[in-house]
Amino acid sequence: MEETRILLADDHRIFLEGLKNLLEEHFEIIGMAENGRDLIEKVHQHRPDIVVTDISMPELNGIEATVQIKKIDPDVKVILLTMHGDVTYATRGFEVGASAYVMKQAAADELFSAIREAIRGRTFVTPMIAGDLIKSYRDGRGIRPGDIHAKLTPRQREVLQLLAEGFSSKEVADKLNISARTVEFHKYKMMEELNLGTSAELIHYAIKHGIISI
After folding, report:
1. Each residue of 92-109: pLDDT tens digit?
2. How many CB atoms lie under 10 A from the CB of residue 199?
3. What CATH architecture is 5-138?
4. Could you give the 3-state DSSP secondary structure of residue 5?
5. Which of 6, 80, 176, 213 has its CA 20 to 30 A from that of 110?
């Protein structure tokens, strides 16, 4: 049986190295990424079986990265390994195709369980939030029409994260291979759609809705 090929992503190098050391005795670690854009490039290059990624990633957060990964190859299993215990993040993660949601403060056995379940094509959620997640679905508190993810396009959310992280319109344009004018167009369309008056309000909105983390 072929060894499961795993790609790791986290913006904390020490944690990333520790994760590699933890998993490499049991799985083939084919690469590591320290931001969301690098993660997408490495998925293109290596076509892993499983991606283990943090949610709070610079340049492209883990949830938006999951959206793009599933477009590249729907068979890649994504495990979200995060500090976020809010079921809103888990709900969104599963909505876009993640296979598992694991808390960083959990025991290592939980991550191994998540990987095994993902390999089998099953879904895994940390027991820490499982009850709240089930209640959320029962109460119909999933992704609502007023949610930022319903209001903005994937490209707009990419632009918003980069702008909120302090990149200029030109820098955002270079990263996304679009023109600075297009970046500005997206910016003002978002402000119009979200009924916001200033760039500062737009950045605050990105922080409030988990597009970036402080």
Report:
1. 899 899 999 999 998 899
2. 13
3. 3-Layer(aba) Sandwich (3.40)
4. strand
5. 213
Consecutive H or E run containing 184: helix 180-193
* C-alpha–C-alpha distance, residues 199 and 209, integer Å: 15
What are the sequence ranges of the domains in the chain?
A: 5-138, 148-208
pLDDT digits (tens, 9 = 90+) for 34-49: 999 999 999 999 999 9
Q: Which of helix, strand or coil describes residue 50? A: strand
Question: Which residue spans within 111-163 are E strands per DSSP?
Answer: 124-125
The pair of structure tokens assigned to 140 is 């119909």
**pLDDT tens string 177-212:** 999 999 999 999 999 988 898 888 888 888 777 777
pTM: 0.80
Mean local confidence (pLDDT), 164-168: 89
Candidates 25, 7, 116, 109; CA nearest to 62 is: 7
At the topology level, CATH places domain 148-208 in Arc Repressor Mutant, subunit A (1.10.10)
d(CA 23, CA 17): 10
Contacts of 177 (CB under 8 A, 6+ apart): none
How much is the pLDDT for 210? 73
Q: Which residue has the tokens 């993640």?
A: 98
Strand partners, 125: 101
In the predicted structure, residue 111 carries a pLDDT above the cut 90:
yes
- The pLDDT value recorded for residue 134 is 67
- Residues 47, 73: contact at Cβ < 8 Å? yes
